[in-house]
Prior knowledge:
Layout (H helix, E strand, L loop, with lengths): L1 H16 L2 H12 L4 H12 L4 E4 L6 H11 L4 E5 L6 H5 E6 L4 E6 L6 E5 L6 H13 L1 E4 L2 E4 L5 E6 L12 H4 L4 E4 L5 H12 L12 H11 L6 H15 L13 E3 L3 H17 L7 H12 L4 E2 L1 H5 L4 H11 L4
Parallel strand pairs: 1-8, 1-9, 2-5, 5-8
Antiparallel strand pairs: 3-4, 6-7, 10-11
Amino acid sequence: MNGAIDIKELNEKIQRESAFIDLINMEMGRVIIGQKHMVERLLTGLLANGHILLEGVPGLAKTLAINSLAKCIRAKFSRVQFTPDLLPADLIGTMIYSQKNEDFMVKKGPLFANFILADEINRAPAKVQSALLEAMQERQVTIGEHTYPLEEPFLVMATQNPIEQEGTYPLPEAQLDRFMLKVVIQYPSKLEEREILKQHLTETLPATKPVLNPEDIIKARGVVKEVYIDEKITGYIADIVFATRYPAEYGLQKYVSMISYGASPRATINLALAAQAYAFIKRRGYVIPEDIRAICHDVLRHRIGLTYEAEAENINTDDIVNEILNTIEVP
Length: 331
């Protein structure tokens, strides 16, 4: 009985604390037509303190989405176009000599912002990718002899173009694992595209207004961690991740030869954290199996390795995740 009362109280608290989600969605909806999945995942990553990898063809409002979100919460936004000649110093900053002071001074790079858009991350060489990924993991940057903490909230949204693969440096598996979510963006529907066209034919495009501060997001992250996850749900998460590693044990023998490696323990943690954030966005104080199923593809699709056999049979990681979700018993 006590547990039931606690859940009820928690639910009411989450509904109160998550009221700003509607304000953000309303402001984002004024600028971005369609792409609700992308906006929802951006909020999930922001509230769960994770980074996002976006894959989609150019022109699908990726830059506009993160820029609009930054404006909504009065946060600093920085965009870096990744190119093969980019150096780590172009990203994190460097020491420059000041003739006036006769001393070296620090010139901070674009990484010192709340929202970083790493555009076409696979165009930059490994050294630059590593500099960004270190900052993502450690939340700090070392320039010269000094270490500088990065501002919170800190969200990196990296984009990849799935079409052009010439002259690119694909992210290694270990580095892909640092992204909480990999979101695949689709084209808008015909109706949405007509709305986009209508919007761009007007003289002035709508702009987002600030509705909250970065401190509100940091506070909300603390509340997100209070979202209740039952033991049955944590067991369900563990089963899903283990099925990617040992498919035969879950009656998925046909995938044994198709999976070269399964999801890491980081996937288990991220699946739980993302589910809490997703439940918060849905104004709920507890996680249900549908939350896990909704977020599962975005958490796992970049964490499962495929063999040549899978590629020959045109099987992708989304197909494997679908099969796992259809096979494992829902609590």
